[in-house]
Amino acid sequence: MTAVAEQTPTFDCRIDFADELITLARADERIVAVCNDSVGSSNLVKFREEFPHRLVNVGIAEQDLVGVAAGLANAGFIPFVSAAAPFLTGRALEQIKADVVYSDRHVVLCGQSPGMAYGELGPTHHSIEDISWMRAVPGLPVVVPADPAQTRAAVRWAAASGRPSYLRIPRFKVPAVTPADAVFETGRATRLAEGGDLTVIAVGTMVSRALDAAALLREEGVEARVVNMTFVEPLDVPEVVAAAEETGVIVTAEEGLVSGGLGAAVAKVVGEHRPVPVRMVGVPTFAPTGSTSFLLDHFGLNADGIAKAAREALGRS
């Protein structure tokens, strides 16, 4: 990352997730938290202190976690299921599919510490597949907030939506990138920078890095549009089509597998509506052991890597 980005204040979105959940719970007694021995890692200690009878800890039993939440939703509660993303989505995929989404229960699935946030714990604890898996479940919104403001907005949206949803809550600290007047709506992206030479579409932890990449490209005379695609499902199809028609080249950036995540979703829209070159920046395979920062740099998930992909897509490598 650039020196400028390193000096920018960064934030742990789990704190904003928990604080907003407490605010909502004070106003609506239907809101409960359900976790899998993850009170600390989900930052739910304050929630438990204020609402000791509205936090259900099922222990390390993710299938039960989702099943219990579905039962609570059936009884009129609004359960926020909070667990490490790799275990929530991997171990309980059948329950997510059948008990929650197919049954249309208002359960908010909160995947904590996704991507490669667990660093040295390795591929068993990395969650690079979760966007692909959740996208494959019909009718399940997949929401990837980019900063604290979007995290709070996503929690409010999910509580009011009346439907199942999956929120991907980052652990890796990120800067604030959301404009004060930004609107948070189902399937709506936020354009953060204008440019006519290409478009970078990013999600989550990659949004700020996409903005840094745009700054690098600007120094070379390349004007890059930057889009924060908060909803990977449903995707903002008009925004993707506009990017294809108006800039002619698209680069996607995500902290996850490119085979079924944001890049795949964007490529599908582009192929159907306006074929243009699409370059995907993400994780191609299981990651080696190392810190989160090392792993992101290893796969080029930084400003330099995104800028490099943009140059290659433009034929300027």
Protein described:
- By secondary structure, the chain is an alpha/beta fold.
- 42% of the residues lie in helices and 18% in strands.
- It contains 13 helices and twelve strands.
- The strands form two sheets. A seven-stranded mixed beta sheet has the order 2-1-3-4-6-5-10, with helices on both faces.
- Helix 2 runs parallel beside helix 8, helix 4 (62-74) runs parallel beside helix 6 (93-102) and helix 10 crosses helix 11.
- The chain is globular, with a radius of gyration of 19 Å.
- The model is unreliable at 1-5 (pLDDT under 50).
**Which strand order does the major sheet show?**
2-1-3-4-6-5-10
Please report the distance between the alpha carbons of the first and last residues.
20 Å
Shape: globular
Computed over alpha carbons, the radius of gyration is: 19 Å
Average pLDDT score: 95
Largest sheet: 7 strands, mixed
Task: Find the count of extended strands (DSSP E, 2+ residues).
Answer: 12
Fraction of residues in helices?
40-55%
